[in-house]
């Protein structure tokens, strides 16, 4: 039986060469301690190094932080560019609307003005009208006339263009003649002898407003 046991090797750290023998548990502990002391094996009392077993934490260096800041700034730059384009588009649309309104008013003013009508012809056309009926006459560039029926006859009032604004008599300025007419359909005319008249109906053959 002893010869059969000798055929099995014990673990290498427990070997006692040249003859393999069975060691007691006490001998195993002593041999393991001696091996650890001599540096030939791990010390049973030494815990494993936490540095070797701890998971590696990724380290963000300065380049990564700079890249993040650069990307963050690009986002803000992009948003600023979008806002700038949006404001530019809005301004362009507002300018187009203002220009369209100006064109429409200019066309309406052209339709309101009677051409080749003098004072005498205007008075004849207004003679059978009601109080406040009026007629607009063209008098040349940047000038027109308002003829209207008052309580004491026909009145003729100058309409002049000053600083790109139209003024009837000595009243406030308006962006167009049609705007002034709309205003004085609700408010008395600022002229002497009008007896606080407001405009009633236009006898202009081209258009009525």
TrEMBL record:
Low complexity bias spans: 34-43
Keyword flag Cytoplasm: no
Keywords associated with the record: SH2 domain
Recorded superkingdom: Eukaryota
Transmembrane found in the keyword field: no
SMART domains the record matches: SH2 (SM00252)
Pfam families associated with the record: SH2
Database matches in InterPro entries: SH2 (IPR000980), SH2_dom_sf (IPR036860), SH2_domain_adapters (IPR051846)
Domain SH2: 112-203
PANTHER family per UniProt: HEAVYWEIGHT, ISOFORM A
Protein name (record): SH2 domain-containing protein
Organism, scientific name: Diploscapter pachys
Biological classification of the source: Eukaryota, Metazoa, Ecdysozoa, Nematoda, Chromadorea
């Amino acid at each position: 039986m002893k010869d059969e046991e000798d055929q099995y090797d014990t673990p290498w750290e427990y070997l006692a060469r040249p003859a393999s023998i069975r060691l007691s548990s006490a001998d195993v502990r002593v041999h393991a301690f001696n091996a650890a002391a001599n540096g030939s094996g791990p010390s049973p009392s030494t815990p494993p190094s936490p540095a070797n077993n701890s998971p590696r934490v990724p380290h963000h260096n300065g380049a990564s932080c700079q890249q993040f800041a650069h990307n963050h700034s690009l986002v803000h730059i992009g948003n600023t560019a979008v806002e700038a384009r949006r404001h530019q588009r809005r301004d362009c649309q507002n300018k187009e609307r203002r220009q369209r309104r100006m064109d429409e008013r200019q066309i309406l003013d052209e339709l309101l003005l009677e051409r080749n009508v003098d004072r005498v012809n205007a008075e004849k056309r207004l003679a059978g009208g009601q109080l406040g009926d009026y007629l607009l006459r063209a008098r040349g560039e940047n000038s027109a006339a308002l003829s209207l029926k008052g309580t004491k006859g026909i009145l003729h009032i100058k309409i002049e263009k000053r600083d790109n604004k139209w003024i009837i008599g000595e009243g406030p300025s308006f962006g167009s003649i049609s705007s002034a007419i709309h205003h004085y359909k609700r408010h008395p005319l600022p002229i002497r002898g009008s007896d606080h008249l407001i405009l009633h109906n236009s006898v202009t053959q081209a258009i009525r407003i």
